[in-house]
Structure formats: C-alpha cells, structure tokens
Amino acid sequence: MTVMEQRGAYQPAPPPAWQPRTDPAPLLPDPEPHRVLGTEAAAKADPALLRTLYTQLVRGRRYNAQATALTKQGRLAVYPSSTGQEACEVAAALALKEQDWLFPSYRDTLAAVARGVDPVEALTLLRGDWHTGYDPYEHRVAPLSTPLATQLPHAVGLAHAARLKGDDVVALAMVGDGGTSEGDFHEALNFAAVWQAPVVFLVQNNGFAISVPLAKQTAAPSLAHKAVGYGMPGRLVDGNDAAAVHEVLTDAVRHARAGGGPTLVEAITYRVDAHTNADDATRYRGSAEVDAWRDHDPILLLERELTERGLLDEDGIAAARQDAETFAAALRERMNQDPVLDPMDLFAHVYAEPTPQLLEQRAQLRAELEAEQTDREGAHG
C-alpha cells in the first residue's frame, strides 16, 4: 500500500474545486497613499489633535538633532536619526491607548519618547550603559530592537496572549522597509493572521535599508500588498502626513481591538539623515533626491495646513520651537553628566533566573574587581 492509498490520505482536488479562503479585494491597499493634509478631508480633522501633532513633530525634530550632536560629542556611541520620519513616530505613539504596547525598532527612539519614556533613558542603550535603559512595563514600550524585525514575533505573541486572556490590549509593531526582508517579518505576519491577533504592523518605508534601495529588496507593487498573501488588510499612507498616519493607525488599532485581526500599514516616508552617524549616505544617493523630500517635510506640511486654517500663527510657531529648545537643553544637560555605572549590572535583568553560566561569569567578574580593589589599596597603603 502506498502512502496515497492509506485511509485519510490527502487527495488533490481538481482545479474547479479550489476556492479562495479569503476574498482578496477588501485586503488590497489603495492605489495611492492615503492623504489628509491639503485635501478636503483635512477640514474634518480635530484641530486639537493637529496642534498636538505639530508640537510633537517640532519637538521630535529637535530631539533628533540634539541626539545626533551628542554622538559627535562622544556622549552617544551611535544614533539612528528619524529626521523626516517624525510623523510616523509621533502618530504611532498617539494612536495607542494607555494599556496598549508599542514594539519599536532601533530607529524608533522618538516614538518611545512620544509614548512617555524618559528621553535620557531611551538613549541609554545607544550610550552603551544598559541593555534597555528603561522599564518596558512603565509605558508599555518594548525594548528598542537592534536586530532587524525580531520585535515583530514578540508583538504577535503578546497580542495573542492578551486576546487569550481577554485583556483589552493591542500591540503596534514598527519596522523599516529593510526589516521586511527578514524571516521574522514573514513569520510574524503569518502567525498574526492565522491567530487573528490584535496587532498592527507599521512599516516605515524610508527608501533604504542602509545603502540598499527598496527596488533591490522587493518586486511587489508595494510593501502593503504583501498583507494579502497572509490574509490581512494592507494600507498605504503618506508617511509624512501626520494626520493621515494617525488616522490610518487609529483605524487599524480600532479594528484590531474589535476582534478584526491584524493590519499591515506601509507609510511612505524618507530618511533625510544618514543611516546612522557612522554612515556616509552620499555614496549611494544624490542631494537632489534628499532636497525633493525636504520639500515634503512633515513639519512643513502640517504647519502649512494649520496656518492656512487659522489654527496656528507666528506666536504659536515660536512657542512650539521654544518648547523644543527647552526640551533639548534639558536633554543635553542630563546627557553631559557622567553616569555612575556598576559593572555588576551587566548580569542584571538578563534572565528572570540566572543560568549557571551567567552566575559563573558574575562570580568571575566580582573576583577580578575585588582583586583590583585590593591592589589599589595596597599601592596606596
């Protein structure tokens, strides 16, 4: 007896018997990125929300500039700037409720700060002082993820667990276009769709995975189209339109909270600065391309909308900029203070229960430190 002859064996159905499990039409993204600013839809936007978005964008731009300057002063080892992407960062934080979780990538420091994380603590990882630098549970912000896309399966797991427990929790996971080329991205989307987990995936398509342009990563019509292959809706949005990003993410979070399952959102934006302070972006892109995107700057777009509608004047602009300067000055002052570091902290919070290897390493380091202390005391004795 062959395998195919065994009772219960899979028997291929003829082609006419095949039916799609899901109608793909409702899952397809719009042919053009969704926009609000500069359209008739802007008149329906909440003025208070627009002002909040504007203030946060201006502060976020100054935060990026200050953090970049700190790398040049030796206060940070590295900083992946999100200049030009502030609309995605701020909108992601504001679209969530207090009980929800944000899962950022390494470039999403600003999103963590907009969510409430202390700005100095958010930079601690990039300073090399701590594994994370902040308590993830305090503001429901997972550790900044340096490995590409590894935070996505974690977001799915948390969202699925919350759903099983009956908790009113949605997870929003952020990733760059480069992260969509990682296996973790595909595994996360597949699990999320099969489990109908309450999770939203936000892809910030800023054009480059370090020096690799999007065209060398995928041949898909858009990254949002990839959602259809997993059975979830795909949304395409202008990532520099803060109002549009907030609207799309808010809708996706609401859909997930209501039991509708996951959504993949692709925000079309641009990384104005280099990949990090260690990158020379002039080697793979021209200044004309960067300048064209500066004309589509998220702050300018929102500022133009607010001023044309009489919701923002010169005094309001000056106040937002002064708020940003005050914020940057406080960050600069605190970052210029040398932290008091305990080498034994290397072993704290690695595992809930330390492994034998970790305990051995900790004991070895403690012995070396005590020996050094004894030598110093003897030299001064």
TrEMBL record:
Q: Does the keyword Oxidoreductase apply?
A: yes
Occurrences of domain Dehydrogenase E1 component (ranges): 64-322
Entry's Pfam families?
E1_dh
Q: Which SUPFAM superfamilies match?
A: Thiamin diphosphate-binding fold (THDP-binding)
| Cofactor requirement | thiamine diphosphate
Family matches, as InterPro entries: Alpha-ketoacid_DH_E1_comp, DH_E1, PdhA/BkdA, THDP-binding
Domain of life, per UniProt, equals: Bacteria
Name its GO BP terms in alphabetical order: branched-chain amino acid catabolic process
Q: Name the UniProt key words of this record, in alphabetical order.
A: Oxidoreductase, Pyruvate, Thiamine pyrophosphate
What protein name is recorded for this chain? Answer: Pyruvate dehydrogenase (Acetyl-transferring) E1 component subunit alpha
